[in-house]
Amino acid sequence: MLDGSTVASRFLHVELELNVHLRRLSFSEPVHYIYNPLEYAWEPHRCFVETYCRGGQSILFLGMNPGPFGMAQTGVPFGEVNYVRDWLKITGEVGHPPSEHPKRLIKGLACIQSEVSGSRFWGFFRKLCGEPDVFFRHFFVHNLCPLMFMGTTGKNLTPPELVIGEREALLALCDMALCQAVAALGVTMVIGVGRVAEQRARRALTAAGMEVRVEGIMHPSPRNPLANKGWEAVAKAKLEELGVLSLLTM
Fold this sequence. Notes:
Shape: globular
Distance between the termini: 35 Å
Radius of gyration: 17 Å
Strand order of the largest sheet: 3-2-6-7
Structural class: alpha/beta
Largest sheet: 4 strands, parallel
Order of helices and strands: HEHHEHHHHEEEHEHEHH
Low-confidence stretches: none
Number of helices: 11
Number of strands: 7
């Protein structure tokens, strides 16, 4: 039960409401598998939110949706297992989605495969901050969409790869939930991790008439050739340009 008396409980309520709406959606080719870690990995996700969503945070890093060896396993955005377990100290039982692809089995915090994006993301902030409390003093992390999609081979499908009508129905719900999450958190800046997240955030928050600054940093994905040449240096320079780098070392 969430009583709504804390920022964390209000934030979790927004996510539970989104889950209700997402269950009503259906998806056609090329989608064959849908994982929602906000259902089967709710325990570690709730642990993450209740531990680190404290109120008074002014900046939200926004990713797009879970990766197969990150949030899909741990329930934590960019949630590479080693950082989630050993640095963030997140605990909790992880169940299974209704249907699993044999190449993308959910093993939770026991998963031995590492997600590059998550390792780069949290590794960068561990270097800058030292301890999680320094990071979460001013920042929080969230994904626009909690669903992960896969085709028949187990290949990850991003929301832009979905059928347009299904994609727009999905993102309309996620946009609405983002506005509610931003209101619950009280942040004044959203930093999209990757161009798609940045664009969706700007579109959603502008349409809702919310006066929130929206910026972006490069996505750390190994699919991005520029990220493979030195994502940390690019991210650090961008955060300096945005005037928020000093908040990560105070």
